Every structure is written in C-alpha cells, then in structure tokens.
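Supplementary Methods S3. Input chains for the assembly prediction are listed below.
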Amino acid sequence: MCSSYIAGLKPGDVFCGYVRVPSPAFAPPADPATPLILIGPGTGIAPLRGFLEERAWQHANGTHVGLSQVFVGCRHPEHDYFYRQEMQAWEHAGIAQVHSAYSAVTGHPARFVQDAVAGAADTVWQAIQDGAYIYVCGDGRRMAPAVREALAVIHRKHTGSDDEGARQGLAQLEADERYQQDVFA
Ligand SMILES: NC(=O)c1ccc[n+]([C@@H]2O[C@H](COP(=O)([O-])OP(=O)(O)OC[C@H]3O[C@@H](n4cnc5c(N)ncnc54)[C@H](OP(=O)(O)O)[C@@H]3O)[C@@H](O)[C@H]2O)c1
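Predicted structure tokens for the full assembly:
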C-alpha cells in the first residue's frame, strides 16, 4: 500500500508521514565479524535481509564476516517463503545458517520461529557465548514475547538460573544493545 502510494506521487506532491527512529538504532554491529542471530518470520525478514545483503557484499569483497543464525517462518515453503533463493545463496556462501518454521506443513519440526529457536538451543547459546547480537523483527503481540521466552528457556538450561536470572540475563543483553527488537503490535 505505502510503496504503491509513494510510487504514484509526482514532484511537488505533499506526503504526510513520520520517520520513526528506533532506539537503539536496529542496525547491525559495526564489526562485520560479530555473529548474528536474526529472527524474522513473515514480513519481519525485511530489515534482516538488508543485514544479510550487506554481509554478503562484505564477504564477496574479502572481509571476514561472522556467521548469521537466521530464523524465518512462513506457512508453506512453496507458497509464502520470502527471499528463499537469497537465503539458499547466503547459506551456500557460508555466511548464514537458516532455520525454517512452517506453520502449515504437518510434521515439520518447527511450526513457529520460537520453536525453531528452541530446536537450535545449543547453536543459539553458543552464538550468544561467541558474542552474537540478536535481532527480532515482526509481530510484537505474540511472536516476540514467545521468542523471548524461548531465549529465556535456553538461558535457564545453560546457566542453571531461575526465571529471574534468565530475565536479568536477557535484560543485560538488551542494555548492551545485543538484543534488539523492531516489532509491531
Ligand atoms: N504495523 C506494521 O508495522 C506492520 C509491518 C509489517 C507487516 N504488517 C502486517 O502484518 C501482516 C503480516 O504479518 P507477518 O509478517 O507477521 O506474517 P504472517 O504471514 O502473518 O505470519 C508469518 C508466519 O508467522 C506465523 N505465526 C502466527 N502466529 C505466530 C506466533 N504466535 N508466533 C510466531 N509465529 C506466528 C504464521 O503462522 P500461521 O499460519 O499460524 O498464521 C506464519 O507462518 C500483514 O497484514 C501486514 O500488513 C504490519
């Protein structure tokens, strides 16, 4: 809707809108070697795709880039999997490891991205230990809290902490700008 509207504007037309400035900036860390955990079901992949494009460009130009653990979710891989070919190419290039959730494929190990995060718990924890930055984009009503709980479960499992310890651990990651969310409700 917005892109069609903007495409129809003519020079001199007035466009009413606002620029939302997220805090922190929801931008990838400055060091391209920093590993990433990117969680973006549905349209949530949009900004994360930009991160991956930049990393792919850096990689192609000889810069060492950290591995991205990418969690994507859609209904069916043949119907609504956004940028599937790009995901495959980034995996092939060795810059990303893609974990998919399919909500309409019976028997697939992960229905939603939070299930895929839980299924890759050890990989996710290792990435966090290696200094990964976590970015979550998409639905803020149900998906983002469920992802947070999946991360809390991983934290509890690997540290032996209780609920409060996990809450503080995630809060510290946020304070360090290593856990960022750009979500809509
Ligand atoms: N307000 C904004 O800023 C904004 C921005 C972007 C998009 N949107 C709107 O959002 C809608 C699209 O939503 P979407 O991009 O999230 O994609 P979506 O296509 O609705 O959902 C993507 C995947 O997430 C699954 N899902 C459903 N409930 C979930 C949950 N509780 N936790 C995790 N995953 C869950 C869906 O499964 P199911 O098969 O169960 O549905 C589907 O597999 C559109 O209407 C779009 O216009 C709004």
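Strands lie at 36-39, 68-74, 96-102, 133-139, 179-184. Residues 143-159 form the longest helix (17 residues).
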